[in-house]
Amino acid sequence: MILLPRLGRLTLLAFLAALLAAGPLAAQSAKQQPAAPPPPPVAGEKPAPYDVQLTRLAEVLGSIQYLRTLCGASTSEWRASMQQLLDADTGTEPKRRERLTAAFNRGYRSFAAVHTSCTDAARTAEERYRIEGATLATEIAARFGN
Asked: d(Cα 68, Cα 116) in Å, to the nearest integer?
């Protein structure tokens, strides 16, 4: 597995945590959707110890991308954050990149199937996913960054 230096990954995860934590707070009345299990690693590929959390983070970023677009907020930073995450973690590994991209798309589509307009529930879901994403990014950096 070709990875960028740890400092680069830690900086990116710290940036993502800060980006996800930013934003207005909304009412917390909507239920959070259960996470789908990540696909198993390809035979012969050694998974990183943080793959489950990273896959979930990619799904969260996809969900936020859809919900922010739906509610008319600036959304380019979420897709750009996912691209930076892919570049930092996957390097030249196409299968790993495909799995993380699929997780991002799965998160995006899961909300596209349910929310067709910006409602209080959509805003609440977006806030909860930002909080979850910030927590995931912080935990990955703290636990696996050393």
From this structure: 12
Per-residue confidence band for 111, with pLDDT thresholds at 50, 70 and 90? very high
Sequence-distant (6+) residues with CB within 8 A of 139 are: 53
In the chain, what are the domain boundaries?
6-26+49-144
Shortest CA distance to 1 belongs to which of 142, 123, 97, 101?
A: 97
Q: How confident is the model at residue 27 (pLDDT cuts 50, 70, 90)?
A: very low
Burial of 121 (0-12, 13-18, 19+ CB in 10 A): middle
Q: Determine the Cα angle at 106 with ends 105 and 109, to 5°.
A: 85
Q: Comparing C-alpha atoms, which of 134, 145, 142 is closest to residue 17?
A: 134
pLDDT the model gives residue 23? 52
